Amino acid sequence: MISRIKLGVVYFVALALHQSLFVSLRIGDVHPQVMLLLAVAAGLLAGPEEGALVGFGAGLLADLFVQTPLGLSALTFALVGFVVGSIQSGIIHSAWWIGPVTALVASVAGIVLYGLTGAVVGQAHFVTPRLAVTAAGVGVMNALIALPVMRAMSWALVPRSERAYAR
Amino acid sequence: MAVYRRTARPRFTLLLLVLTAITLLTLDERSHGMGFVDTARDAARDGFAPVQDAANTAFRPVIDFFQGAFHYGDVEAENARLRQQLADQEAGGMRAADAEREREKLLDLSGLDFVGDVPTVAARVVETPASGFDLTLELDRGRDAGVARGMPVVSGGGLVGQVIDVSRRRATVRLITDASSNVGVRLASTGDIGVAAGRGAGSKLRVDLIDPATKVDKGEAVVTSGLQNSDFPPGIPVGKVVAATSSTDALQQDVTIEPTVDFRHLEFVKVLQRAPGG
Fold it and tell me: Which H/E stretch holds residue A116?
């Protein structure tokens, strides 16, 4: 129960940051996607099921504030969280750079998946040559802010005695 | 690091989430701007508006610093352009005054005094596009201020877009550069009618349906056509022609225009209180 409350706090703070700060930190019309990063962090820290659940919630929240189809981010972020969670069990977590590198790769994959899924549900204009630029840009920016997001997600999901990113 | 992980049927959980997401996508598609999806979106935006406003205020110094640091090149280029413009104007002297009179006449002729007597609502832009796939702006005025779905939105530079969603305290504006945006336009010099279609972030607009025989000059103004039942009143500046090519057997010219509005630096806009087709 405490964990869910903490997760709610993380969602709230992340959404407030995303809707005000991060959407303004643009380079070439690309900005960080912190809600996607929540899914990546949850998958990395707590496994596929938690990654999918947190990703779905974060995506649904993000969907409420954009005009793209409701459920598109939820679907994409849940899949990203699940895949990251499924792969993470084979990763040695001691290195500090695992989080940023995972954020980079998973964010690129997540944005491409978002574009492709969007095209499937009628948003054909999502798939343009610019999609690759957007994905790469989001990947790099998410990698840069990955460590604090990992810490926040670790605070919410991981028992104190087992935290690595909370040091 | 020890890993905290649930192992109970993660695939089944994912399946449920995917099915839920597909259900939401279907409901959203079928609601066509009505129903619980829009109610939920309106409630979320209205409920979160005070938090967003407070966060915007709190982070303003950080945002300004970032934009100053990473868009220094743009500022420098704009500065150089303005210096050049000022030098041209000073050198022009009387010619500039004449040109200004001519410009005013042309504006009158073309109806570029675009707001006219249409009532307007001034609004602040509180959110730039929150996704690279969704070129919309969020305004701090909504139904309570008289904003309604379909109303055109303009700035000093010209047409910004159209209100596509509105809640009590917020309105969402689809930019004319969005790939789903189509605006009826005419060329200011010849009066030829076309449709300016958005092509997404970072891209210029494409104007379709311009006759291949029409002479289209680079830099020519393109304004809204305001034809019957149009969503936009006539004469609002949309863009300037940057390229126009035509092949002998083509049915139309390939005309590209650059929007007159700088969408990256919009702070305030005006919503024209005019119903679509009104």
Answer: helix A98-120
With 50 as the cut, is the pLDDT of residue B104 above it? Answer: yes
What's the first-to-final CA gap in chain B, in angstroms? 65
Please report residues of A whose CB lies closer than 8 A to that of B13. 49, 52-53
Q: Which two tokens stand for residue A152?
A: 């926040």
**Do A56 and A90 touch, CB atoms closer than 8 A?**
no
Place of tokens 């509180």: B126
Angle between helices A146-157 and A2-20 (to 10 degrees): 160
B204 touches chain A (CB under 8 A): no
φ/ψ of A158, rounded to 5, equals -105, 130
C-beta of residue A27 within 8 angstroms of C-beta of residue A44: no
Across the interface, of A50, A71, A126, the residue whose CB is closest to B28 is A71
Could you report the per-residue pLDDT of B62-100, keeping only the tens digit for each? 887 877 777 666 666 777 677 766 766 665 554 555 455
Tokens representing A158?
Answer: 């991981």
Q: How many CB pairs under 8 A join A and B?
A: 185
User: What is the interface pTM, i.e. ipTM, of the complex?
Assistant: 0.90
Alpha carbon distance A62, A65 (integer Å): 6
Those of residues 25-54 in B touching chain A at CB distance below 8 A are 25, 27-29, 37, 40-41, 44-45, 48, 51-52
The reply to whether residue A70 touches residue B3, judged by beta carbons under 8 angstroms, is: no
- Coil, helix or strand at residue B135: coil
